[in-house]
Design brief:
Elements lengths: L3 E2 L6 E10 L8 E4 L15 H11 L29 E9 L11 E9 L4 E5 L2 E3 L1 H7 L17 H6 L7 H8 L2 H259 L3 H72 L6 H8 L7 E4 H4 E3 L4 H8 L6 E3 L2 H14 L6 E3 L20 E4 L4 E3 L4 H8 L2 E4 L2 H10 L5 E4 L4 E2 L5 E2 L12 H275 L3 H6 L8 H17 L7 H63 L3 E6 L10 E6 L6 E2 L5 H4 L1
Parallel strand pairs: 10-11, 14-15
Antiparallel strand pairs: 1-2, 2-3, 2-4, 4-5, 5-6, 6-7, 8-10, 9-13, 12-14, 15-16, 16-17, 18-19, 19-20
Amino acid sequence: MKRYSSTVSGTELFLKSIEIQGFKSFANKIRFEFHNGITGIVGPNGSGKSNVADAVRWVLGEQRVKQLRGSSMQDVIFAGTQARRPLGFAYVAITLDNADGALPIDYREVTVARRIYRSGESEYLLNGTVCRLREINELFYDTGIGKEGYSIIGQGQIDRILSDKPQDRRALFDEAAGIVKYKHRKEMTLRRLESEKENLVRVTDILGELEKQIPTLEKQQEKAKIYLKQREELKRLDINAFLIENGKNTQQLQEITSQETTARQDLSDANTRNEALRVRAEGLQDQRRDLDAKIESLRSRITDASIVRGRIEGDIKVLQEQISSAVQRSHRLSEQEEILKKDISARELQETEFAEKIRGAEEAFSRIGADYEAAKEALQSSSEDVRSLREQLEIKRQGVLEEMDRRANIRSRLASLKTLQSQEGDRLAEVEKELSQVSGEQKQTDDEILSLKDQFREASGEIRSLQDGQKEIEEQIAAHKTTLGDSDAMLQRAQFSWHQEKSRLDALTNLAERYEGYGGSVRRVMKEKQREPGIIGSVADLLTTDKKYETAIEVALGGSIQNIVTRDEDTARRMIEILKRERAGRATFLPLSGIRNARTLSGSAVLREPGVIGTADTLVTAAEGCRDVAASLLGRTVIVDTFDHAVAASKRSGHGIRMVTLEGELFAPGGAISGGTYKNTSSLLGRKRELQELSTSTEQFRREVERLEKVIEDTKESRNILRRKLDDNKRALQELFIRQNTLRVRIQQEEQKLEEAAGNVESLRQELRSLRERTAATAASQAKAQEELEASVLLEEKLNTEAASVQERLTERLKDEEGDAGRLSALELEKSRTGQELGFIQQNAERIRRELGNFRGQLSLILESARSDRSGIEEKKARIKELEKESEESEGVRSSDEEVLRDLRRQSEALREQQEDTARERESTMEVISGLDRECIRLSSRRERLEEAVEQKAAYMWEEYEITPSDAVSMRDDSLTDLAKMKKEITQYRSRIKALGNVNVSAIEEYREVMERYSFLKGQYDDLKEAAVSLEKIVRDLEEGMRRQFKEQFADIQAAFDKVFKELFGGGQGRLELMEDVDILEAGVRVIAQPPGKKLQNMMQLSGGEKA
C-alpha cells in the first residue's frame, strides 16, 4: 500500500491499518499496520493472501458474492476445521488517515467497519456508529476508494484499461476526474424526473377521462332532477287513486262474501241428500258384487275343467309321439354300434406298428447323443487350456509393465525424500522457537475468562428471573385475549340478537297499535276505543291459543277474527253510525249482552273419532267475560290433527259438522273442502303471543349485552396494566440480553484465544514429535527404496523369459481347439435330424391313441342310450292309461257347474235394474249440486280476485313507494276525487317519465364528486409540471458542471499520462483521446502510444511486454 493523490482535491489519503476477525481463513483477530512506503503480503498458495484483498473489498460494501468467491454471504464467516469450531460472525475494519480532509467528514481518522452474523444480520459502522451502505458509498465518491475504485486493482481491472473498447475504461477516468458523485446525483434526479413525468401522464389521463365525463354527467343530473320532480307528483296521484280503488274493492268483497256463504249452505243440504242416495247405491253394488264373484268363480271352474281335459289329451299325444321317436332312435344306435367296433379294431393294429418304430428311433438318437457329448467335452478341454495360457501370458506381460512403473515411482520417491529431509530440518528449528512463544500466553487469557464468566452468570440469573415474570405476564395477557375474543364474539351475537328482536318487537308493536292486517272499517272503529268504553276489542285481541293451534283457529274463525266485541247493542249502534257518516265501510259487532248460551258440540260422538282434538272453543283462552263469544264463534267447529282423519270423521258424521285441520284445511258441512297454501303472513291471533315472547327475549338480550360490555371493559383495563408491565420487563430484558451477548462474545473470543493457544501448543508439540519421527523415517525410506529398485530390475528379466515359454504352448493348443470344433458341429447336425424323426413318429402314435379312446367312449354312450330308451317306452305307456281316466272325471264336474251358473245370472240381472233406478235419481241430485258448486266457485273466484286485487294494489304500493295501506291513508289528498281524471294524469306522467329514457338518479351526486376531483387533480397537474421543469433545470446544471470539470481534469490526466509514458519507455510519447461525435460525458477513451523508434499506434498494437 502506498500514498496516492486525489485529482479532485489534491489531497492524500493513507491506509493506516486493517483489522480482521472471523473473515474466511482469519479465525483469530489480526491487525495489519501499514507505515510509509509499500507493504507487501507474501505466503504460499492457500495461505490467505487473496482473503486480505477480499476483506478490504467486502468492508467497502461489496454485495456480489461471486466477487468474494462464495455462494452466499455467510460463506465469508470462518467455517471451522477438525480441531476448531466455526465462528458466529465476521468482522473487518479499515482505518484511513484523514488529516488532509480528503474525506467529507470532520475526523482526522476514519474507521469503516462491517460485521455479519451467521443468522444473516449485518451492519456497517463509521467511526463506531451504525450507518447505511449508501453513506459509505457517498463518503468515498471521487476518491478512487470503493468496491469499484482503482485503489483495489484485482484480476480483470488491468484488462479493462488494456481493453480494445474505449468505453470499458471510461469509468476509471470518471473516478479520477471527480464527476462520479455528480453522475450519481444526475441519475437520482433523472429517476425522480421520470417518476414525476409518469405521475404527470397518469394525472393527464385521469383529467382527460374526467373532462369527457363532465358534460355527460351534467346532462344526466339535469334529467335526474326533472325525473325526481315528476316521480313525486306521480306518487301523489298513485297513492290517492289506490285509496279510492281500495275502498271500492273492500265494499265489493264484503258483498261477495255474504253471497258465497248462502250458496255454500244450499250446497251442503244438496250434498246431504246425495250422500243418502250414495249409501243406497253402494248397498246394491255390494249385493251385485257378491253375485258377480260367485258367477266368476263358477265360470273359472268350468273353464279350468275344459283346460284340464285339453291338457290331458295333449299330454297323451305327446307321450305317443315320444314312444315312436324312441323306437326309431334305438334302430339308429344299433347301426352306429357296428361301425364303431370296426374302427376300434383298425386303430389297435396301427398302435402296435408305431410302438415298434419309436423303439428303433430312440436307440439311434441315443448313440448319436453319446458321440456328441464326447466331442463337446474334448472342445471344452481345448478351450479351457487356451484361455488358461492366454491369462498366464497376460499376467506375465502385465507384471513386466508394473515393474517398469514401479521403478519410475521408486526413483521419483527417492528424489522427494531428499527434498523432504531438507525441509523437515528447517521446520524443526522453527517449531521449537514458536512453542516457546505460545506457552507464555495461556495464563493471562485463563484469568480473564474466569472474570467474564462470573459476570455472565450474574446476568443470566437476572434474565431467568425476568423471563419467568414475562412468561407469567404473557400467559395472563393471552388469557385476557382469549376472554376478550370470546366475550366480543358473544357480545356481537347478543347485540345482533337484541337489535333483531327489538326491531321485530317495534315493528310488531307498531302493527298492533295501528291495527295493521285489519280492514279499514275495523281500524276506524278501534280508533274510538279510547273515547268509547263500550268497545272491548277485536276477536283476535280477546282470544289466545297455543301456537300449534293458531292456524286452525284462524281458519275456523275466518272473517270473524276481525269482528268487534262490544258491551251492548247501543255501543254497536253508535259505531255503525260513525262508519255510515264517514263512509268508512262495514264492520261486524258482537254485543256481549246479546250472546248467551251458545250451542256447542260438547258431548258429540264425533269428538271420540280418531285424530279429533276437540271443539275449537275449548282450545282457546278468552278474555274475562268473553267466553260466550268464543263458544258462539267456535263451539260448533271441530279441530282435527290431519287431513285423513278429518275425511274419515266427516264421512262418519254425514258431512254435517264443520271441521278444520291443524294445517288449515276446512271441511264445511255438506262435504265442501277448502285447502291449499294458507296465507298467514300476518297472524292476528298469534300477534299478542308473539309480542309477549319478543318483549321477554328482548329484555334478556339487553341484560346480556350490558353484562358482556362490563366484562370486556374490565378485561381491557386489566390487559393494559399487564401490557405496561410487559413493556417494562422487555426493556429490562433487552438491556440484559445486550450485556449478556457482549459478555458471551468476549468470553467466546477469549476462549477461542485460549483454545487456540492450547491447540497451538499441542499442535506444535505434536508437530515437533512428528518431525523427529518423520526425519528418521525419511532416512529409512531412502535405503529401502534403493533396495526395491535393484530387486525390480531382476524381477523384470525373469518375467520376460516366462512369457516367451507360455506363448509357444498357446500356439499348439489353438490348433487342437480348431479340430475339435469341426467334429462337434457335424455331430450336432446329425443329432438334430434324428431327433426330428423321433418326434414325428411319437406325434403319430399319440394321435392314434387319442382316436382309439374317442371311439371307445362313443361306443359306451351308444350302449347306455339304448338301455335308457327301452325303459322310457314302458313308463310312457303306463302314464297314458292314467291320463285317460282323469279326463273322464273332469267332464262330469263341468256339466254340474254350468247349471248353477245359469241361475246366478238371472239374479244379477234383477239387481242391475234396481241400480239403474237409483243412479238416475242420484244424477238429478248431482245436477243440483253441480249448479250450486259452480255458483260457489264463481263467487269464490270473484272473492279471490278481489282479495288478490287488494293484495296486488298493496304490494304495488310497497314495491313502488315502500308504504303500507295505513301509511297511504295519512297521505290522502281530499281534493283528488275524480278517479278517471287521476288515471289519465297518471298515464301522462308515466309517459313523460318513460320519454326521459334511462335516468341515472345518482348522477347528481356523481357530478358533484367528479367536479371536486377534477379541481383537485388540476391543481396536482400544475404542481407536477412545475416540479418537472425544476428537475430538468437541475439535470442541465449538473451536466454543464460535469462537462466543465471533466475537460479540466482530463487535460491534467493527459499531461500526467504522457509524462509517465516517457519515464517508462525512456522517450516516445503517449496520448489519451476522447471518442469523436459522442457526448463528452459518455465518450470512450482511446490510448495512443509511440515507444521510441516506433510509429504512432493504438495501444492494442503494442507487444505483450510493452503492455505490461
